[in-house]
Amino acid sequence: SFHEPVYPPSTRKEHTQAMIQAMETGLIQILGHPGNPNYPIDIEEVVRAAREHNVLIEINNSSFVSSRLGSEPHCVEILEIVHDLDWKVALSSDSHAHYTVGDVDIALQKIQSIGFPESQVVTMNPRRLLQFLAEHGKPVSDELSGWLAEIETPATVEM
């Protein structure tokens, strides 16, 4: 993700290229808050690159509530393009306070209001997220397999 103190805002073209180049490294799995209005991007180009490099697009609750004001229309457009291009997102709280860790209620309301399918949300359950991380060779997928087996019951296992 881009942050003003580290990466000063520039042009739409420069932001787009920087995001794509970051994804091309293979070092990232989730592109953080690309709906930030201070960093306009070519959304379709970024989503196509994310799909090509198996990188999730993050939509975070904080962008709808308190951080990066003005993000909402960009986030909605991102969701629409992700859906059109058959790609995936990660919902997150982007919390900076303990009492909102894991709170994605507004982001969930937003995806439901525009008809974005939950099947394209990798963070809807632990199994999906761990499977995605395993595709990237992240050891956490193996490290948490025992925990996952403990929390899943036949009613919650997704096929």
Structure in words:
- The structure is a single chain.
- The protein is mainly alpha-helical.
- The chain has helices at residues 12-24, 43-52, 62-65, 72-84, 105-113, 126-135, 140-143, 145-151; strands spanning 30-31, 56-60, 89-92.
- A three-stranded parallel beta sheet has the order 1-2-3.
- Helix 2 (43-52) links the parallel strand 1 and strand 2.
- The chain is globular and about 50 Å long.
- The mean pLDDT is 88.
Could you give the topology of this structure?
Elements: H1 12-24, E1 30-31, H2 43-52, E2 56-60, H3 62-65, H4 72-84, E3 89-92, H5 105-113, H6 126-135, H7 140-143, H8 145-151
Parallel strand pairs: 1-2, 2-3
Helix pairs in contact: 1-2
